[in-house]
Amino acid sequence: AGHRLQAVTVLLRGNHVTRAQRVLDSIDPNELDEVDQLRWQVATARIALVQNRTAEALRILPAETADSAPSALRAESHELRSEAWRREGDYLEAARERVRREGWLDPADTGGIAANRQMIWQMMNLLPDEVLRDQLAPPPDTLDGWRELTLIGRSAQAGASDTVAMIDGWRQRYPAHPAPDDIIEAVLARQREAAE
């Protein structure tokens, strides 16, 4: 089954979805170990997303992955869940999956981490204020740090004159938050533009 799962991965990279599906159909996921089950789930969900079956992708992919699974596979699972939630229009869950994904990315992959953070920021900016404010957990919850930073950005865009103080307070509440400096600078720039 391991070789067939590797073949499915290669077929999907080449966009041979129908052939990949046939190979997957020949594998009984109940006979796989935890790691290969996750590989099967990721491949099956990837095909479901290609075919715009987002609910099926979410049903197939586990919210939590096996501890024995490789980090890259766990990151891919969360990325696919994020994409499915995004297509379903649930941007908060899409961002939540991106936050989870970051924990499994290779720390040396600075480009991948930066792209993941930009996706989180984009998802946050698609949410209405009431969703951003709803049931915020106390710091240092990473997702809620993103939510609060987004609200500060909206206040800045509306012309709030205390944006710098708001950012300073945010940094004190979330001292280890992964939001990059360029996003924080963009929030401050919104306030400067609104003041002009």
Average pLDDT reading:
95
Total strands: the figure is 0
Q: What oligomeric state do these chains adopt?
A: single chain
Q: Helix count?
A: 11
Principal-axes shape call: elongated
Low-pLDDT regions: none
Structural class: mainly alpha
Helix content: 55-70%
Would you spell out the secondary-structure blueprint of this structure?
Elements lengths: L1 H12 L3 H9 L8 H17 L3 H7 L10 H18 L2 H12 L7 H15 L4 H5 L8 H16 L5 H11 L7 H15 L1
Helix pairs in contact: 1-2, 1-3, 2-3, 3-4, 3-5, 4-5, 5-6, 6-7, 9-10, 9-11
List the keywords:
196 residues, mainly alpha, 11 helices
Brief characterization of the structure:
The chain is mainly α and about 200 residues long.
Report on the structure:
- The protein is mainly α.
- Helix content is 70%, strand content 0%.
- The chain is built from eleven helices and no strands.
- The chain has helices spanning 2-13, 17-25, 34-50, 54-60, 71-88, 91-102, 110-124, 129-133, 142-157, 163-173, 181-195.
- It is elongated.
- The N and C termini lie far apart (63 Å).
